[in-house]
Amino acid sequence: MTRVMNVAMIGGGFMGKAHAMAYASMPMFFWPAPAIPHRKIVVDVTDAAAEAARERFGFEEASSDWRAVVERPDIDVVDICTPNNVHAEIAIAAAKAGKHIICEKPLARTIEEARAMAQAVREAGVIHMVAFNYRRTPAVALAKRYIEEGRVGRILNFRGTYLQDWSADPDGPLSWRFQKRIAGSGTTGDIATHVVDLAHYLVGPIAEVNSMVHTYVKTRPIQQGGVDKLGASEKSATAERGEVDVDDEVISMLRFENGAVGSLEASRNAWGRNNFITFEIHGTEGSIHFNYERRDELQVMFRNDPADARGFRTIYTGPAHPYGEGLWPIPALGIGYSETKIVECRDFFAAIAQNKLPSPNFEDGLRTEYVADALLRSGETGHWERVEGAAGTERQWTRAQA
Amino acid sequence: MTRVMNVAMIGGGFMGKAHAMAYASMPMFFWPAPAIPHRKIVVDVTDAAAEAARERFGFEEASSDWRAVVERPDIDVVDICTPNNVHAEIAIAAAKAGKHIICEKPLARTIEEARAMAQAVREAGVIHMVAFNYRRTPAVALAKRYIEEGRVGRILNFRGTYLQDWSADPDGPLSWRFQKRIAGSGTTGDIATHVVDLAHYLVGPIAEVNSMVHTYVKTRPIQQGGVDKLGASEKSATAERGEVDVDDEVISMLRFENGAVGSLEASRNAWGRNNFITFEIHGTEGSIHFNYERRDELQVMFRNDPADARGFRTIYTGPAHPYGEGLWPIPALGIGYSETKIVECRDFFAAIAQNKLPSPNFEDGLRTEYVADALLRSGETGHWERVEGAAGTERQWTRAQA
Amino acid sequence: MTRVMNVAMIGGGFMGKAHAMAYASMPMFFWPAPAIPHRKIVVDVTDAAAEAARERFGFEEASSDWRAVVERPDIDVVDICTPNNVHAEIAIAAAKAGKHIICEKPLARTIEEARAMAQAVREAGVIHMVAFNYRRTPAVALAKRYIEEGRVGRILNFRGTYLQDWSADPDGPLSWRFQKRIAGSGTTGDIATHVVDLAHYLVGPIAEVNSMVHTYVKTRPIQQGGVDKLGASEKSATAERGEVDVDDEVISMLRFENGAVGSLEASRNAWGRNNFITFEIHGTEGSIHFNYERRDELQVMFRNDPADARGFRTIYTGPAHPYGEGLWPIPALGIGYSETKIVECRDFFAAIAQNKLPSPNFEDGLRTEYVADALLRSGETGHWERVEGAAGTERQWTRAQA
Amino acid sequence: MTRVMNVAMIGGGFMGKAHAMAYASMPMFFWPAPAIPHRKIVVDVTDAAAEAARERFGFEEASSDWRAVVERPDIDVVDICTPNNVHAEIAIAAAKAGKHIICEKPLARTIEEARAMAQAVREAGVIHMVAFNYRRTPAVALAKRYIEEGRVGRILNFRGTYLQDWSADPDGPLSWRFQKRIAGSGTTGDIATHVVDLAHYLVGPIAEVNSMVHTYVKTRPIQQGGVDKLGASEKSATAERGEVDVDDEVISMLRFENGAVGSLEASRNAWGRNNFITFEIHGTEGSIHFNYERRDELQVMFRNDPADARGFRTIYTGPAHPYGEGLWPIPALGIGYSETKIVECRDFFAAIAQNKLPSPNFEDGLRTEYVADALLRSGETGHWERVEGAAGTERQWTRAQA
C-alpha cells in the first residue's frame, strides 16, 4: 500500500504553485509512486493569503502561523517555498519537530544559517533536500549518466552560465531578491548557485574560485505590493527608488578537487537571455553541451565515432533516458518546468520511502553555500579563494595519464 | 464563487494521465480559475484497471461502465480519452445526457461518426471541444496573434509537418493505432490532423487537397497486453505478425478558401524526428516558423525591419505572450506537454463558464475530419479532392492587390 | 606536366565573378591540379563591358563577339555565364567548334533548346557540365556518400526546398529573371531546378510530379540599366512597371523511379529566407538533413545508434569528408560560395583530364529540364505529369522488403 | 588607373594558399579595386618547395632566399606567412627595405620581438597589418557597426571563446605549433589572440587579466616531414614522442579600460568544436552573439523591440551589411574562409592606397601580444596582471549613469 504523506507548504507564490502542481501530479507520472503527497496545509503571511493559496493550490487547510504548523503531529513533510530570509528558522524548527524537509534554493542567506540548518537535520535524522530542480531535467541526468559511464572520459573542463534579463531593466521593482537582508545575496545566491549545483553534480566538488562580482543596477523603484512577480512585474521610471545592495553579475574561474577546471558566469543583465542555464563539458573522450532553454535536448560528441560521422548529437530525451519511464511516451512531447518539478518531487519522496538521503541534500546545499561565499569573498579580494571544507586539489594531471 | 465541476474521465492511459494532471493543476496556474475541475470518476475497461487509474490519477470513484457514468446527474463534464473507436458512441451518449464534452483527437474514425457527434452536441446545446492541444502552445497562439494583427500581412503559404519515428521500427507492436477498425486511419488521423488543425487555426479553412498516402510498414508483431505505450513499447523481431491496414505517411498539397496555398507532410517513418510538428508561414509582410520540438520559441521575421537588422527573431514565450499571465513568470522556464494541456483545460472550462463554444469544437473537428477524408480519397484518386463543405477558393490573388 | 587550358568566359556578371575566382584559385586548392585554367578571354555585350571584365577578372583578352571567340583554335573551354536566353546558341556553336563546355544553370529556357544542346555536345564528343554548384558543397557530397554506402538504408522520402526573399518585395526591378523571353521560366527554372538536381543526385531520377505554380508579383518596375544585381538592386515604388510573365512559387509532390516519394517547394516570396536550400531524407536506417544557409554542416541520424545516444549528429565537413583534401585543414574554417565553385571547377577539369563525363552534364541538365517542364505542365493541368523519358516507377515497396 | 603592386609572399603552406587566393580574387570582388596585387614572387625554405608553390599559387618567380627578396626594388609588399619564429626577422628587414607588410598572426613569439617589429615599421613609415582575419567576417563587422551606432548601448560584458579539437588527440604530431622555440606559446598565441583581437576591436583595450593556463597533452609523436597540416595530419600511437612545451588551454577573466568586464576561453582539447570562435556581448540596450562556425549569421537582440516580439534576430549578412557591396548579391550564398581573406586583402591594399594605417596594424598586434603576455604571466602568478601600456581602468560604472 502506497503511503499517503501530509505536506505542509510554507509560501504560496510562484514556487508554491510549482510545488503544489508536483504534489498533485507526481503519482500520476511515477506509478506506483513512492508515496502519495497529500496537500494538507498551506501557510502564507496572512490568513487571507493563506486561504487564497489553499483554494488555488488545492490544500485541505490554511494557516498564517508556520510555527504551529510545523509542529503538528499529522504533518510528515515541510516544504519551504518562502523568500530566503526565513529558510533557516523554518527548517530548524521543522527538523526539531522531526519532519522531512524540502527547501527551496539557495539553502540560506549565509553560511552560518546553512551550517545550522545542516546540523539540525543531521541531528534530527530526517530526510532533507534542496530544490535545485535543474539537475532533475532528464537531459542533465543523461549527461550525468554519460559521465559516470565514462563515455566522455575524464573531465577536463566545465563551463557553466546562468543568464537572465527579467531584471536587466533598471526600472523593474526592488523585490526581495534585490535586498541583502532578505535574499542574502543577488545573482550569486539566486542563480549562480544553480550552476554550482550542476557543477557539483556533474564534475565534483569545487575547491577554489577566482571571481568578479558586480552590481550594475544600483537603485530600483520601491516595490508596490509584496509579491515577487519576476519578469511579469510592472516597470516604473518615476517611482521612488531604493538601493540594491546585492550583486547582479558574477564571473568566476573554478578549480575542482579532481583537477578539472572551469568557469561560471551568472548575470541578470543579459538582454535576450531568459533562463539561459548552459554547460559545456570537455572530457578526454568527448564533450557535452546543454542549454536549458532547449531542455528537451542534450548535445553529446564522442571522439570515437567514425572520422566522417563525428559531431555533436542532439539527443531528445524520452523513454530511453533517465526518468523516461515516468514522463512522456515519446521524446519531445515536452519537458517543461512542471516536469522538472515532478521529477524532483518523485526523488524526494523516494528518498523518504527508502530512508536514504537524496541529493542535493542540506549537506550539498551547504557546500554550495560555501562556494557562494567563496565567490563573494573572491569578488572582494581579487584572489583565488578556497571553498570551506574543500579537499586539496589534485595536481594538474595530463592526458598521458588519462 | 468559483464553481466546482465534476469530471468523468473515460480512459486511463497516457492521455488520461495528461488530462488528470491538467484537472489538478489548471486552477493553480490560471487563478481565479474559470471553474474548479473535480476528478469525480474515472472509467477504464475493467474494474481493476479503473481502480488503478482512480488511485493513480486521484479520482474519487472508479467504474468500468461508461454508459452508466455518463448518465449520472452529478457529472458535469465527460472527458473522452479512449482509443478512437468509442469516441462517437460515448460522445453521443454524453451529449444526450446533457454533459459538456472534451474529446481526444481525432474526433472520430470516419466522417459519418464525426457528423453524428457534431449533430448530437449541436442538438444538446452542450459545450464541446476536441483536444488538439498543440494550438494551445503559447508560441502557436503568438503566431495567431501576429497573423490576426496583420503583422505578417496576407498569408501566401503554409507548410506544415508532423514527423515521428517511434513507430519507424517495423518490429514495434501492432497497437490499436495501426488497426483501421479501431483507429479509423493511421498517420492521417493520428498526426496529420494536428497539422490540419493548426492550418485551420492559423490560415483558415482548407478547400482542396492533393495527396499521396502510403503504408511502408505492412505488418507488425501482434501486441502482447493491451496498453499502447508508443515509443516505450517493447520491440520484437520474432513475434507473430499481423497486418497494418492504415497509412504511415501522407504528403499533400493544400489550397485554402482564402487563396493561400501550402503543403503538409506527416510520417511515422522519419528517423530522428520525435514530435516534429512544424509550420512555416510566408506572408506579404513577414514570415513565421515554429517547431514544436523547441516549443518555447517562435521564429518571426518582419520585412519592415531596418535593412541591416532584418532576420528571424527567436521569441521565447513568457508573461508578454498568450497565456503568459497564468504560466511561468519568465520565458524559458519551460513549456512542456503539461503546460499545453493545462492551457487547453483552462480554455475548455472558460468556455463552459462563459457558455460560449471554444475552438476547436466538434464542428471544427468535423471540418478536420473532412480534410482527413479528402486526404485519403486523394491518395487513392491521385487528383485534387475538394473538402466537404468547403466554400469556393478565392481566385489566385496577387501581391499588387495585397 | 599539368596542362594549361585556355578558357573563354562568356558573361561578366555575378556568375562571371564566381567562375573567374575559381579559375584563379582552383589549382591552389587542388594540387596537383587536373589542369591549370588560363583566363584567356572574357566576352561581354559591349567592348567596354568586356574590357572592364577583363581587367577586373584578370583575363588576357576581351571581346564582345562570342561567335568569333568560340571558334578560336586556341580556346579549350567555353564557359557560359550569360542569361538563359543565349545558352543554347552559344553552347551549340561551342560544341560544333569542339570546345569543352561548362554552362550555368538552368541549361536552357525550354526542353527544345536543352535537347538541341545535349545533342550538339553528344555529337561533338566534348566534355560538358551544367553548373549546379550546390551539389558540390562538401556536406552534400557527404550525404551522397552516406547514401551510397547504405548508411541510411533505402530512401523512403525526399523533401527539398529553395526559398528566397531577395525578390519578395514587389518593388524590386524587372530584371531578366522575371521575363519569360529571356529566362524561360521563373522560380522553376532559376531555383527549383537546383532542388531537382539535388534530388537526382541523391535519390535518383524523378518520374512524376504533381505541382502548383503561382505568380504572386505580377508587375515590377522596369529595370534601369541592364545589370542583374539580385538582392543588391535598387527598389522603386514609383517607376513605370512591366509585366512579370514567369512564376515565383512552385510546390510539388514527387515520385522517383526507384519508388521513393517526396516534395519540393521553391519560392521567391519567403521573407527571411535568403538562400534556403534544404533537404531532408528519410531512409530505412536513418535520416539526413541539410540546410545550405549552414552549409558547413550536415545533420545525420543513424537508427542503429545506442538507444540512449540516438539523435541527429551535426557534422562539420573538413579533411575527413569529400573534397576535404583540397579545401581547408580543419572543419568550420569555412565553406563559402567560393569554395563550392572551386570544387565545381576542379571536377570539371578533372573530367576533361580523364576524358570522362562529369555529372551533372548536359544529359543530366536535360533530364532536369524535363522535370521543370513537367512541373510547369502539372501546374496548369492540376494532375500528375510524367517526366519525359522517365522509366516506370517501381511499385510501392514496403519496409518488409527493405 | 588602378595601381599594380608586386607582392613577395614568404611561406607557401596553408596560409600561403589563403593569401594567394585572395591576391587573385580580391579585385574581382571589390571593383574598382584599391590596387591590383601581383603575385610576383613566393619564397619557401627550399628551391624545390618554392618552385612548387610558385606553380601552385600562380606566382611569377620563386626563391628560397627571403633576405634577397625583401630588398628587391620591384617588390611593394611583403607578406609573411611563415611560422612565428621568423616573423620578426623578416618584418624588420622588410620595413628597413621600405616595404608594406602584412604579417600572419600572432605578430611574434614574444613581446620583445613584437616591440621591435612595431618600432621598425614605425620608423620606416610603411603600411602594416596583422592578419587577424576573423574580424573581417561581415557578421563581425556588423557587430562593430551596431556597437558604434549605440544600438546595443554601453557594453557591460564580453565573453569570447576559441575552441578547437584538431589537436585534442594526444597522438597528433608535434608540429611547430607545439614547440615554444618556434611558436612562442601554444593556445594563447595561436588562437586566444584571435579572441583578444576581437575584444579589442569590439569593446576596446583590455587592461587586466586573471587567468589559468594549462598543458594537458604533454608529449606528442615527433613529426615526420616538416609540413603543418593541422587536422589533416596523420596520427600515430607508436612513434617516438617529444615534449610539448606550450599551453593547450587558457581561461581568463578580463577587465577593459572602459569598465566593461568579461571572460575568454581558448582550448585545443574541446572535442566537437572545430573553429568555435564565439562572442557574446551584453550591453545596456541589447546583446550580440556570434559563432564563427555559423559565420554567415549574427545574432542581435534589441531591448526596445515590442514586448511581444523581443528576441535574438538571426541576421544573415549580405548586400545591406559591411563589405556587402563587394561580396555576394544575396545573403547566405556563403561566407567562407576565402571571403574573410579577400576582405582582409581589400582592406590592406585600401590602406596602402590611402596611406592610412589599417587595423589591426603592428601597434594593435603589439597590444595583443601584451595581453598574451599578461595571460601567460597570470597563469603563473594566479593573480590579476596588468596589460603593459594599459591605461587605468574606469571605476565600475552603474546602469544609472549609462
TrEMBL record, chains A, B, C, D:
Keyword Chloroplast assigned to the entry: answer is no
Signal peptide coordinates: 1-20
Report the superkingdom from the record.
Answer: Bacteria
Q: Among its keywords, does the record have Transmembrane helix?
A: no
Residue ranges occupied by any Gfo/Idh/MocA-like oxidoreductase N-terminal domain in the UniProt entry: 5-132
The UniProt GO MF terms for this protein read:
nucleotide binding; oxidoreductase activity
Keyword annotations for this protein, in alphabetical order, are: Oxidoreductase, Signal
Identify the InterPro entries for this entry.
Gfo/Idh/MocA-like_OxRdtase_N, Gfo/Idh/MocA_oxidrdct_glycsds, GFO_IDH_MocA-like_dom, NAD(P)-bd_dom_sf
Q: What Pfam families does this protein map onto? A: GFO_IDH_MocA (PF01408), GFO_IDH_MocA_C3 (PF22725)
Write down the Gene3D superfamilies for this protein, in alphabetical order: Dihydrodipicolinate Reductase, domain 2, NAD(P)-binding Rossmann-like Domain
Domain GFO/IDH/MocA-like oxidoreductase intervals: 142-288
Q: What PANTHER family does the annotation carry?
A: BCDNA.GH03377
Name it: Gfo/Idh/MocA family oxidoreductase
